[in-house]
Every structure is written in C-alpha cells, then in structure tokens.
Design a protein that fits this description.
The protein is mainly beta. It folds into 2 domains: about 1-35; about 40-210, Peptidase/esterase 'gauge' domain (Methylamine Dehydrogenase, Chain H, 7 Propeller). Helices cover about 10% and strands about 45% of the residues. It is built from 1 helix and 15 strands, in the order αβββββββββββββββ. It has one helix spanning about 10-30; strands at about 45-55, 60-65, 70-75, 80, 90-95, 100-105, 110-120, 130-135, 145-150, 155-160, 165-170, 175-180, 185-190, 200-205, 205-210. It has a 4-stranded antiparallel β-sheet with strand order 1-2-3-4, with no helix packed on it. The longest helix is centred in the N-terminal third of the chain and has 21 residues, at about 10-30.
Length: about 210
C-alpha cells in the first residue's frame, strides 16, 4: 500500500489535499501569453537580439544595420548604441543592477571581452563611460568572450587557447580562473549570480550538458 498506516478514508483525505495543493500551484503559476510579449527592435536595424536583462528592466543585446553589428542598451524606452572604439563588431551580452555591461568585440587582432561601466557620478551612462578590455591572461589564448556578469562585477565567459580548445573562465577582482569540467572537451561559463554560483555548458564523449558550479 502507498500509505500502510492510514485508513482508506485517511488516504482519500490525503489524496484530496495533494490534489488541492497541485491545483493551487498550477493556478498560481502565470501562463505564457502572447499578449505579454513585447517586441524589441532597434530602429533601422535589420535584426535585433536581446541577450541580457537586470533587475531594473535594463536590456542589452546586439543589432545589425547597414554599417555592421553593434551592441545596445534599452532603458526606459530609449535605445543607446554601444560600440567599442576601433571595433568591427560589438555585442553586449550581460548587464548587472549597477549598470555595468559585459560583452564581446572584434578588432584587427582577435575577439575580446569587455566591461563597460559608468565613469564618475555625473553625466549620462555612456557620455562618461569607460571601456575596459578583458583578455584572458593565459599564454596562447587567442580570443575571449565575456558572457555574464553579477552585481559584484564578477564576469564569466569563454576563451580559446593555442590548441583551439574552449575553456570557461571567471574574472574576479582582476584575477582570471579557468573553468574546465573534468573530462570535457569544451566548457562554457554562461552566467553567474551574486552568490558566485556559475552555470554553463560542456561537451564530453556522451554529448552536451549543462552544469552548475
């Protein structure tokens, strides 16, 4: 029996309670509705991809127009273009509640990660902004992609080494830490929360898997 110590009547009562709890959880979970979807298109762009959002509703991503691919910030109904000076390609991927934005850009040398944060207490977010390039300081690393950032300014992402193997990384207080899932041929750190928990993906002999660290 499922409940050996209960009478048949008690089992019916317990079952009824469980059914009510399931219904309560189901009814309290908001269903996806097409009417709740807001399309985000940068004016004049041929394509727009939203990649990150913070607790204040600020959205970052990338868009493509006739001049190339650019990062963007969408805040309070206003789009702000993010272009790393001298870059041929800029992609904003993550934003924290402090307004710091992490992402990736290409130039004539390779692919780099970046951190874009407010510089000073006055002025607009971008008029006083400062770009800081993030390149993993591993010998032979050919490219760095910053994917996620938390409110402590810790950044996670991926980099390729001299053998074209892809590794995850954590960048915290100026220090890079490589993240490799044991037995994996590919590791990507995708996101990090304020407790320092990191999520991502890895590939091994059995396929592609998600992970939490």
């Amino acid at each position: 029996m499922l409940f050996p110590s209960l009478s048949f009547r008690s089992v019916r009562v317990v079952t009824a309670v469980l059914v009510m709890l399931v219904l309560a959880v189901t009814l309290s979970t908001p269903a996806f509705s097409a009417s709740s979807v807001t399309t985000i298109d940068v004016p004049g762009a041929s394509s727009t991809i939203a990649r990150g959002i913070n607790g204040r509703g600020h959205i970052v991503g990338a868009y493509t127009d006739a001049t190339g691919t650019h990062g963007f910030l969408f805040s309070k109904g206003v789009f702000t273009t993010i272009d790393v000076p001298g870059a041929s390609f800029t992609n904003a991927r993550g934003v924290n509640n402090g307004g710091q934005i992490s992402g990736t850009y290409d130039d004539t040398t390779s692919t780099h990660g970046y951190l874009f944060s407010k510089g000073g207490t006055h002025g607009f977010l971008y008029s006083k902004g400062v770009f800081t390039t993030i390149d993993v300081n591993v010998p032979g690393a050919s490219s760095t992609i910053a994917l996620g950032i938390n409110d402590l300014s810790q950044i996670v992402g991926v980099y390729e080494d001299a053998t074209s193997t892809t590794h995850g990384f954590l960048y915290s207080k100026g220090v890079f830490t490589t993240i490799d899932v044991p037995g994996a041929s590919f590791t990507q750190a995708q996101g990090i929360n304020d407790l320092g928990r990191i999520v991502g993906a890895y590939i091994n002999a059995t396929g592609t898997h998600g992970f939490e660290q």
